[in-house]
Structures are given as structure tokens and as C-alpha cells.
């Protein structure tokens, strides 16, 4: 399509449609990759994801409290494993503890 002053609105409209479809494809691709693939993170990225300092992450690594991989002298962290690690530290609420105790007492009776 040759662009002239007369058909400029149609050309801009077509360009806008194509740009929107490209944007949609890129977003779908990014969402698909994030959900299907695990991301490997550096220690700085892991610290950002967990909202912790890099020295704190090193402390957890030294104490073997956090899941990590080491290749030569570099540390890598799985984003999925970090998320699971955080979730395992979840404390039960008072109502959850009471419900658990109630269930336990019912079984004993």
C-alpha cells in the first residue's frame, strides 16, 4: 500500500492494528514462558525477589537454609524453589490452629 496524504488515516489505522496484535503476541509469549519455565536467578535477582539484602542471602546459603545451585563459584536460585521456600515458612493462623486441635480431639474421642 502506497501511503499518500489522502489514505494516511487508513494507513495509521492498519499500523495501529498490527502493533496491537504484535503487543498481544509478545504478552502471551511472556506470560506463557513465566508460567511454564522456571527462571534461574543470580544472587542479586534472588535478593530483589525476596526483598532481602545480598549479605542476608549469603547467610542463608552458608547455613544451607535456602535452596540454591552452585556452578564453580557462582550461585543460582530457582524462582519456583524460592517461592516454595517462602511458602513453607508460613505460620498457621490462630483459627487454623484451633480447627486443627478440634479435629485432633474429635479423632481421639
Brief description of this entry?
65% of the residues lie in helices and 9% in strands. It is built from five helices and three strands; from the N terminus they run H-E-H-H-E-E-H-H.
Helix content: 55-70%
Indicate how many domains the architecture comprises.
Answer: 2
Give the quaternary arrangement of the chains: single chain
Number of strands: 3
Mean pLDDT: 88
General shape = elongated
How many helix segments? 5
Low-confidence stretches: none
Going by CATH, the architecture of the largest domain would be Orthogonal Bundle
List SSEs in N-to-C order.
HEHHEEHH
Strand content: 5-15%
Derived structural class: mainly alpha
CATH C-level class of the largest domain is Mainly Alpha
What name is given to the CATH topology of the largest domain? Answer: Arc Repressor Mutant, subunit A
Strands side by side in the biggest sheet: 1-3-2
Let me know the largest β-sheet: 3 strands, antiparallel
Gyration radius over CA: 25 Å
Amino acid at each position: 500500500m502506497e501511503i499518500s496524504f489522502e489514505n494516511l488515516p487508513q494507513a495509521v489505522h492498519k499500523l495501529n492494528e498490527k502493533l496491537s496484535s504484535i503487543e498481544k503476541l509478545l504478552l502471551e509469549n511472556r506470560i506463557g514462558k513465566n508460567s511454564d519455565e522456571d527462571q534461574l536467578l543470580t544472587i542479586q535477582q534472588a535478593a530483589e525477589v525476596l526483598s532481602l539484602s545480598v549479605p542476608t542471602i549469603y547467610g542463608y546459603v552458608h547455613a544451607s537454609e535456602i535452596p540454591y545451585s552452585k556452578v564453580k563459584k557462582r550461585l543460582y536460585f530457582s524462582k519456583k524453589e524460592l517461592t516454595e521456600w517462602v511458602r513453607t515458612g508460613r505460620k498457621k493462623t490462630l483459627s487454623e490452629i484451633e480447627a486443627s486441635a478440634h479435629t485432633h480431639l474429635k479423632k481421639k474421642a
